[in-house]
Amino acid sequence: GNDTVILRGGVGGGSTFHGNIDLGNSDVPTGANERNVLTLGQGSFLDGSVTGGLNDDFIDVGVDARIDGAILLGNGDNLVETSDGSMLMGDITGGSGIDLINLRDGSTTTGDINLFGGSDSITIEIGATLNGNIDLGDDADVVTLESGAILTGDILLGDGDDNLFLEDGAAYTGNVEAGAGSDRVVLRGTSGGGSTFTGTVIL
Fold first, then answer.
1. Is the pTM of this model over 0.90?
2. CA angle centred on 138, ends 133 and 140, rounded to 5°
3. Contact 158/138 with Cβ under 8 angstroms?
4. What is d(CA 48, CA 32) in angstroms, rounded to the nearest whole number?
5. Which of 181, 111, 103 is nearest to 141 (CA)?
6. What are phi and psi of 104, to 5 degrees?
């Protein structure tokens, strides 16, 4: 069925889970709002990996929560969201579906993001940091660094019409390699400053 795993948390600290979590496959037919959910409450800690199934998965990492392990999303349309002060310490791997990775303000992610097929989106919000490489795979994908976001690592845009946006105040260090398709790398700025790109673009 649609399964939910919750690690409860609070201002004084959260729960701790040592081990791996396999969300399995929903038995609801595809397209019928099927979704498995993993929620880490404030300050909670998962010391292990997360594996999704064939259907949709939602990984919700709360304020100051942490996952020390890889996240394997599988082939559904999946969503991973971090929160202020949260940490992801491991690779994130998607499948053939549409994957949305939202790294919210003040969070830190250390690991590679490999999204393969599907029109995927990675957003690194204000003050968030990603230390790792990105492989967008096939289809039309979007990577956005908002103001104050920091990304250190190489980006492989892959096939499809892909977009990389650096908003005013974002900082990127690494190399970008385009694939087949019409790709765009856009650095935005204002009269008071702009975004920073340090590396090479290979078209």
1. yes
2. 95
3. yes
4. 30
5. 181
6. -85, 170
Contacts of 29 (CB under 8 A, 6+ apart): none
Q: Which tokens hold the place of 119? A: 């029109």
Q: In 149-187, which positions are buried (b, 16+ CB within 10 angstroms) versus exposed (e)?
A: bbbbbbbbbbbbebbbbbbebbbbebebebeeeebebeb
User: Which tokens hold the place of 203?
Assistant: 């078209």
* 15-55 tens-digit pLDDT: 999 999 998 775 555 555 678 899 999 999 999 999 987 78
Q: How many CB atoms lie within 10 A of CB 126?
A: 15
17, two tokens? 């889970």
CB 159 within 8 A of CB 138: yes
Q: 24 is written with which tokens? A: 């399995």
DSSP state of 29: P
